[in-house]
Write a structure and sequence with these properties.
Blueprint (H helix, E strand, L loop, with lengths): L7 E7 L17 E2 L2 E2 H10 L4 E8 L4 H15 L1 E5 L4 H9 L8 E4 L9 H14 L1 E7 L4 E4 L5 E5 L5 E10 H9 L9 H7 L5 E4 L10 H11 L22
Parallel strand pairs: 1-4, 1-6, 4-5, 7-11
Antiparallel strand pairs: 2-3, 6-10, 7-10, 8-9
Helix pairs in contact: 5-6
Length: 250
């Protein structure tokens, strides 16, 4: 008996304020990186996969006019749905989750500002989620961790054994993530896995890579440009962007 291949939807949150990026022209998901916006590097890692049924990018309503003028053709070519986000990241993911098709088995949430993603890492976390119901990419903490006091002196050294840094994609059975968001309450969560943890459900850690960088600052953007050259080239379904000219970006 041949088991059915699980299907996935991918949510790309890109509605944040990018306050630490400090650029007057761009929010970090929309900044140019190797000739394409950061978010497009992230999105194209999923849109060419046969197991991804649906891809949604979540943007701030204040960015919709600009996004559509610059990137609507990119989104249309790749079949990406554009969703208006909310005040908090969880509000934005919830808005996209409400648009996920009911016949999709799993939902992956991936930061639109993580452009340096290898296909093998996606394969691994998708497979782990299909087996356990919930899985995230993460890397073990290898440095020495210090807890700081208010005056920036060391208060305590934290043992690093068993500590991991969470990354994305974070992948969950659709019904499990829907339940986690329905019961999230007012207490903030820093990622989607934390909401699933609150349900008492186990979440599998899948070893990722430090190369799976989340862009926060301009230095991160420059580093991402170098990391992209070390990754396999993405498989594109069409032109990266159908418009030409520097005025596209400004």
């Amino acid at each position: 008996m041949v088991l059915p291949v699980p299907t996935f939807a991918v949510i790309l949150p890109a509605a944040g304020k990018s306050s630490r990026f400090r650029d007057e022209h761009y929010k970090k998901p929309f900044a140019p990186l190797d000739g394409r916006p950061v978010w497009l590097h992230a999105a194209e890692k999923f849109t060419s996969r046969p197991d991804v049924r649906q891809t949604l990018i979540v943007i701030s309503p204040e960015d919709r006019e600009t996004f559509e003028s610059k990137f609507a053709a990119n989104a249309a070519l790749l079949g990406i749905e554009i969703v208006d986000g909310g005040q908090e990241r969880s509000d934005s993911v919830a808005a996209a989750l409400a648009r996920v098709a009911e016949d999709v088995d799993f939902v992956a949430v991936h930061d639109a500002a993580r452009p340096c993603l290898a296909e093998a890492w996606i394969d691994a976390v998708f497979a782990a989620a299909a087996k356990s119901g919930a899985a995230i990419l993460a890397t073990p903490i290898v440095g020495t961790i210090k807890r700081a006091a208010a005056n920036r002196t060391i208060e305590k050294t934290i043992p690093r054994e068993g500590l991991w840094e969470a990354q994305t994609p974070q992948v969950f059975r659709r019904d499990l993530l829907v339940e986690a968001y329905a019961r999230r309450g007012p207490e903030p969560a820093t990622d989607d896995a934390q909401l699933v943890e609150r349900l008492g459900r186990p979440v599998t850690l899948v070893p990722g890579s430090p190369m799976n960088l989340k862009i926060t600052t301009k230095d991160d953007l420059r580093l991402a440009g170098m990391l992209l050259k070390a990754l396999p080239r993405p498989r594109l379904l069409g032109p990266a962007h159908p418009f030409a000219g520097d005025d596209l970006w400004r």
